[in-house]
Amino acid sequence: MSAAAADAARARAQRLLHGPVARTLLVLAVPNLVVMLAQAAANFLESYYVGLIGVDALAGAALVFPVVMLMQMMSAGGIGGGISSAVARALGAGDAARAEALAQHAVVIALALGLVFTVAAVGGGPWLYRAMGGRDTALAAALTYSNAIFSGATLLWLLNAFASVLRGSGNMRLPAVVLAGGVGVLVVASPVLIFGVGPLPGFGIAGAGAALVLYYALGCVVLGRTLLRGDGGVRLRFDRPLQRGHFADILGVGGIAVVNNVNSNLSVVAATALVAPFGVPALAGFGLGMRLEYLQVPLVFGFGTAMVAMIGMNVGAGQFARARRIAWTGALMAAAVTELVGLAAAVFPRAWLGLFTQDADALAAGATYLRHVGPAYGLFGLGLALYFASQGARRMGWSTLAGFARLLVIAGLGHLLVTRGGGGLDSLSAVLVAAPAVFAALACVPWWPRVADAPLRPLPTGRTA
After folding, report:
1. Which of 23, 40, 55 lies closest to 306 in space, CA to CA?
2. pLDDT given for residue 421 in this prediction
């Protein structure tokens, strides 16, 4: 690592450990928010292009979308959060060598999990999408889209592992520049690969998946090169023996966070399965509504990644009271932003839905969803931000319970009301309002003063209890 890079790393650490909480959070969060907004715009464009193919393609994409988001959330917010937390705590304790070793272990984990996702999605996709209600042309579109995306799953896992190592050091800017810049690739590549241009034939919905894989590959090249050179704050080296303790440090947070990611996506899968019997237009409309809810995840991720780095570094340095203050400040910021989005969607649902389809039944179903669920987005944002705070502190118990409770409300109560009670889309929407309220209430528990007064004692390895 050059002297300039080392000086920049020390300056970032000092800002995270001693800078004003709100201002530092915003400085760290803004680059991530820019990335998330850019990726949301790319997601919107992809949905728009897929909608031009037809309602069946849109319904197929709705079936695959929760699974793609599961992979993205696991690689960036789940295991990625574990990587950032471990690196931040190591640097907060002044152990740069441990941070470098953790980066190497992060790459090994990413390679293994990327391969698992490729095998599972290609082999189990037909069963999963049928179980979610996919039939005929919608199922065929789902399988085509899924196979194209998951063929490059390892590249996404590597991309997010590289970015998470850098974020753990407090370097938010470089991952933001690379990931946001890559969205420009999608803006051009998606329509070209979907519809074709000149002598290049269009590949339909498979082209949308191929464009994402291209985006992952280019991002890996840039971030990987930076880490190998040590220019981003942590140097990636492959000359250290693998150690169980380093895997445990990452997976002790990331493994539990993955359970939360699975619970979150199973909640959407359960809701999607409950909507499917109402027909393809209802599935497409509710899918567009739930996609807007999913977009709150990357929005909160902007604050959450900053919280993981700040809280992790402060916990590593033994500054526990400051870590708690960071948690509440970041959570309230995230709740305010997501609530604004939810209220706008509830008041003007067709401003979002009409961008993707003009099918009357799909519009009606999506509007029902947004009018009911939109005002609860702030609760979802609050609970999700505190989940990120728990990653930084390595206290994942209550956030995991909160995720289980949300799934239980949707799958259990939703099943009773819709399938046994004869309820319609209004009943399902009411259940989807109750779920984030329960989620937020439980996620708050470890950060209330009396509970949070329990010390976060550093362990001999630099980890925290």
Report:
1. 23
2. 59
- Alpha carbons within 13 angstroms on the beta-carbon side of residue 121 total 28
Measure CA 291 to chain center: 13
Compare 120 and 426 and report the one with higher pLDDT.
120
Distance in angstroms (rounded) separating the CA atoms of residues 104 and 2: 19
User: Which uninterrupted H or E stretch holds 201?
Assistant: strand 200-201
- Maximum CA pair distance of the chain? 68
Q: How far apart are CA 1 and CA 230, in angstroms?
A: 5
Could you give the dihedral angle defined by the CA atoms of residues 139, 144, 146 and 151, in that order, rounded to the nearest 10 degrees? Answer: 160
Structure tokens at 79: 């295991």
Structure tokens belonging to residue 392 = 């930084």
Segment 60-82 mean pLDDT: 82
Contacts of 40 (CB under 8 A, 6+ apart): 295, 298, 299
Phi, psi of 103, deg, nearest 5? -60, -45
Average pLDDT over residues 350-363: 79
Of the candidates 462, 461, 79, 8, the one whose C-alpha atom is nearest the C-alpha of residue 230 is 8
Q: Distance between CA 45 and CA 223 in Å, rounded?
A: 25
Q: Residues near 369 by Cβ (< 8 Å), separated by ≥ 6? A: 285, 286, 289, 290, 425, 429, 432
pTM > 0.90: no
Residues 236 and 371: their CA atoms lie apart, in Å, by 48
Per mean pLDDT, which range of 24-28, 72-76, 293-297, 319-323 is the poorest?
293-297
Residue 184 has a pLDDT of 80
